[in-house]
Design brief:
This protein is mainly beta and 307 residues long. Helix content is 7%, strand content 34%. The strands form four sheets. Strands 1, 4, 5, 7, 12, 13, 14 and 18 form an eight-stranded antiparallel sheet that branches. The chain has an eight-stranded antiparallel sheet with strand order 2-3-6-17-8-9-10-11, with no helix packed on it. InterPro entries: ConA-like_dom_sf, LamG-like.
C-alpha cells in the first residue's frame, strides 16, 4: 500500500480541503488547479505525475480553489498506469472528483449518448484493458437516462460492465461531488456504490444481469491503460470542469465522503495570491491563514479562530 507524505492546511499550495483528503490516505491526488503548467504533481507524494493535453484554463470550485476546464472535444489529463490504480490490487477501490458540466447535451458522446469524464481502459476484445470509469449521459439519449451519472467496472475484454448510478436533476455550471466505491469481497459478486454530494445515491452488485443467459460476472484485473480525466479512451469527451481527483485503494466510508463535501462547501474564502488555493481560513487548524505575499499561505499565529 502506498502511504502519502504528511500534509497540513498550512503546507504551501494546499487548502483545508486538500489536507482533509490527504488525511484519508489516497494513493493518488491531483488537484487539477494549474493546467497551464502542462503537468500536475500527485500531492500524496507517491509520484504519480500527470500531463495535460489541450487543457489550459480554469474555473473556481466552491472553496475558491482552481479546477481544470475540458473542452469536450480533445482536452484530457493522463497519468501512466500504476499498481494502486487497479481495483484488483486490494479488492477495494474508490474514485472521487468534483465535476461541473458546461452543457447537458454533449457533442462528443458515445453511440447511445454518454461521455466518460474519467476512467482507465482504452480498448475492448482480445488484448483489452478495460477497468473502470465515471460516466455521464446527455439529457437526450437512446437509453432514456437524462443526465444520469454512474460508475462502472469491467472485465479486461470490455463488453457489458456493472455499476451503480444516480438519476437526479443536473444543472449547467453546477458543481457535483462524485464518488464511486468498489468492494469485490462483499456478497456473492462484490458491490459498487455511488455517492453524490456526500450522500449515498445507489448501489448494485458487480454482475450484469445475474441469473440470466446474459449474466456477466465482473472480476476486475490489472491492465496497462493510463488513468485519464476528461475522457477514458478518446471515444467521448466531457465538456466542463473537473477538479480534486482522488483515487484510493480502499472503500471510503459515507462519513469520510460527507466530510469532503462539507469541507468544500463551507464558507468560501478568497484566493488573495492567485495560487489556486483559497486563503483566509483553515478548517483543519481552526485558525485564519494569511497571504505572505510570496506565493504561499501560512497559519496566522495568535489570531482567534473563525467559527
Amino acid at each position: 500500500m502506498c502511504l502519502p507524505h504528511p500534509a497540513t492546511a498550512g503546507s504551501p499550495g494546499l487548502s483545508a480541503y486538500d489536507a482533509l483528503v490527504l488525511s484519508h490516505r489516497p494513493v493518488a491526488y491531483w488537484r487539477l488547479s494549474h493546467p497551464s503548467d502542462g503537468t500536475e504533481s500527485d500531492r500524496t507524494g507517491n509520484g504519480h505525475k500527470g500531463t495535460f493535453h489541450g487543457v489550459t484554463s480554469t474555473v473556481r470550485l466552491p472553496n475558491q480553489d482552481g479546477a481544470a476546464v475540458f473542452d469536450g472535444s480533445s482536452g484530457y489529463f493522463e497519468v501512466p498506469t500504476a499498481k494502486p490504480f487497479h481495483i484488483s490490487t486490494t479488492g477495494a477501490f474508490t474514485m472521487e472528483a468534483w465535476i461541473r458540466p458546461h452543457t447537458l447535451q454533449f457533442a462528443d458522446e458515445n453511440h447511445t449518448g454518454y461521455v466518460h469524464f474519467m476512467g482507465k481502459g482504452t480498448k475492448s476484445g482480445s488484448g483489452g484493458n478495460r477497468e473502470w470509469a465515471g460516466r455521464m449521459y446527455s439529457k437526450v439519449n437512446k437509453e432514456n437516462r437524462p443526465n444520469r451519472i454512474s460508475g462502472y467496472a469491467w472485465n479486461l475484454d470490455g463488453g457489458f460492465g456493472a455499476g451503480a448510478f444516480v438519476q437526479q436533476p443536473v444543472k449547467v455550471n453546477e458543481w457535483i461531488h462524485y464518488a464511486v466505491t468498489f468492494d469485490t469481497s462483499e456478497g456473492a459478486y462484490g458491490k459498487v456504490r455511488i455517492y453524490r454530494d456526500g450522500v449515498p445515491a445507489g448501489t448494485d452488485n458487480l454482475v450484469y444481469r445475474p441469473g440470466t443467459d446474459d449474466e456477466v460476472v465482473i472480476r476486475p484485473k490489472p491492465g496497462p491503460a493510463p488513468v485519464r480525466v476528461g475522457t477514458r479512451d478518446g471515444g467521448s469527451s466531457f465538456k466542463g470542469a473537473i477538479g480534486k481527483v482522488a483515487l484510493y485503494d480502499r472503500e471510503l466510508s459515507a462519513a469520510e465522503l460527507r466530510s469532503h463535501y462539507a469541507a468544500m462547501t463551507g464558507p468560501a474564502t478568497p484566493d488573495l495570491d492567485s495560487d489556486g488555493v483559497g486563503d483566509v481560513f483553515s478548517a483543519a487548524t481552526r485558525t485564519p491563514t494569511v497571504w505572505t505575499g510570496r506565493g504561499g499561505n501560512r497559519v496566522g499565529a495568535g489570531r482567534a479562530p473563525y467559527l
